Structure formats: structure tokens, C-alpha cells
Amino acid sequence: xxxxxxxxxxxxxxxxxxxxxxxxxxxxxxxxxxxxxxxxxxxxxxxxxxxxxxxxxxxxxxxxxxxxxxxxxxxxxxxxxxxxxxxxxxxxxxxxxxxxxxxxxxxxxxxxxxxxxxxxxxxxxxxxxxxxxxxxxxxxxxxxxxxxxxxxxxxxxxxxxxxxxxxxxxxxxxxxxxxxxxxxxxxxxxxxxxxxxxxxxxxxxxxxxxxxxxxxxxxxxxxxxxxxxxxxxxxxxxxxxxxxxxxxxxxxxxxxxxxxxxxxxxxxxxxxxxxxxxxxxxxxxxxxxxxxxxxxxxxxxxxxxxxxxxxxxxxxxxxxxxxxxxxxxxxxxxxxxxxxxxxxxxxxxxxxxxxxxxxxxxxxxxxxxxxxxxxxxxxxxxxxxxxxxxxxxxxxxxxxxx
Length: 402
Hints:
3 domains; alpha/beta; Alpha-Beta Plaits; Rossmann fold; 402 residues
């Protein structure tokens, strides 16, 4: 993941998780300055519900507005909290509709939209209640102005089709790590609950084969990264997602996806603010807030699996030999099989003038092109090379016409 995406994710979830709650039952951030709005214009004499005052330690840092899209929407419900939740979903739905229409097939529109909208809290950076009051049928309404992270919505829109199309689902272990003295213990209830939310998203939304850490030593909690890797190897998984809750006062969280085959970190998605009191949030709210980040991590894992599959099967190249003498053509054909990274080859078209072969190789395009050019050079042939993407054409230059 790029540094810009990481910064955007860090800012988004910091604003969401560190802001005060609208009410204990709602579990939603009111505004990123952690104070009730002062410029609200209620449609009725009843003022918007006030949020609890935040302590200085819980105040979030300012969030960059580069990826924000601000919308004003109205929601209704049996209570004000329900009305606000409805309004948040409508705000995200407006933004996701714009993003999804340009990149997603029609048959996937509803699925992708519903997945994102159903976790609206994870995509709203902040909001303020503009007005609230009662409806004619005895319910409540709330009009809000919400700042939606359009960039994060776009990332999820891009990720979902690829994740839904996955044929092979990796084996995953979501583990906890107590990295240092400043880290919250991986066995603490809040850390376990966070890992559970990540595991549930990977398992239920993307069908990853997530190991039940309840059966693992220390319930999947480790004191060191080496210990975490030992737990993952013992569980015989493909990837370990290591979650670290650090910063006792700040409550920062980081998530790494590590491929056990070679120990490489394929995704380091987040380093986000997490309120120390998040244990008071409903579980659904915790899952919503980590949802965009978990989607991004799942996408990186899926991309790694796809890249490994391509590397194993080989990249397909087309090699065209034009007007090569028969002996030289045969020598080049046989030499292609001896090149580094060769997987397989098949003839596409062969006649008196042209020989065209499909060659699968684990080499990149530049590496493959250089290797073929070197092979032709070893035959002491004079040929003009032309490259168009993955097509490498070599035209033999006869000495008579040179």
C-alpha cells in the first residue's frame, strides 16, 4: 500500500475512533473537534443531543480534507440515534454511487454498494447534526452534514470485485502481538475483540479460511514477532495477520500481513488511533471502523496470491522470427527452451517465412527480451528487433541486402 493510502487510512480511523460518542448506544463520532456543534440550526426548539466532553488525550489530530466529499442528508428512525445512523448510510451511499458506477460491472453493483454502505461508520470521517426533531408518525429525524472519505470508498470499490472473484482462499491466522512496553497486552479483552472483528470480516465477507485462535496456545497472543510466526507455522496457514495495539495513552493499532512461505510482509495497512475506551463501543461499531482497513489488507493478500500464481505459471510472451534461415530458426527455437525462467512453449504459426511461438517464462518483459536478443546474437545473426508490449519480433537482415 502506498504511503498516501496509509496516511489517509490513519487519518480516517483516528478521527472516527478517537472522537467522542454521540451517545453510548450509538457509538458514532460526532465531530473531529470532540465538541457538540455550535452552529446547528434545529428545525424544532429541541437542541441536538450533546456529546460528552472529551479529555485532551482523546482529541484527534486534524484530518486532511483532500479526499473528503461533504454531503448533507436526512435520516429517520424510531430514535435520534437510529435517524443519525440512517443518515450516515445515505451519505456514504451517495459517494459510493459515484465511485462504483465507473469501475464496477452492473451485476456487482448492488453487492459492492451494500457491503460498503452497511459499514458506513468506517467511511465517515466526521459529521455534525444540522437539525433534529419529530416526524408526523411519532418517530425522529436528523439532518446531518457528513464528510465522507471518497478515497477510501474508491479503494474499497476497487478491491471488492477482485476479492469476490477469488477462486483460491488463503489460510489465515489473525494473531496478537505485544511489541514492547508501550504496547497494550495482546491478551487484554479490547485487543482480543479487535482481532475478532478483523477475523470475522476476513472469514465472513471474503471466505478466507481463518484459523480459530481459541484452539491455539495463548489464544493466538504472542510477546514477540518470532513467537507469533511460530504460532502461525504451527497452525499451518499461508498468511499471518499480526495485530499490535500500541500506545497505552493513544491506543494506536498496526496490522501486518506476513506470507509464511518466505517471511515477507505483503501488506502493512494501518497505524491508526484507537480510543482507550473503545471497549464501551458496540461490537458492530468496532467492526465498522476497522472494515475499510481490513478490506485493503485482504486486497493486498489477494494481489500477492495472484502475483504468485502468475509467476508460477509464467508470463506469456510472443516471439516472432521473420525470414530466418531454417537452421538459425531451429537453433533459436531450441535455445528458447534453455533460457532462465522457461516454463513452456507452443508454436502459433510456422511457414516458410514466419515462425511465431508463445513462450511462458517467469522472467519479466525486459529480462525476457534481453535473453532472446542475446540468444539470437549467439547465432551470429543480424536481426532488427521490434517490441510491442509482450510481442518480440525479430526480422532477419540478409547480408546481401545489408
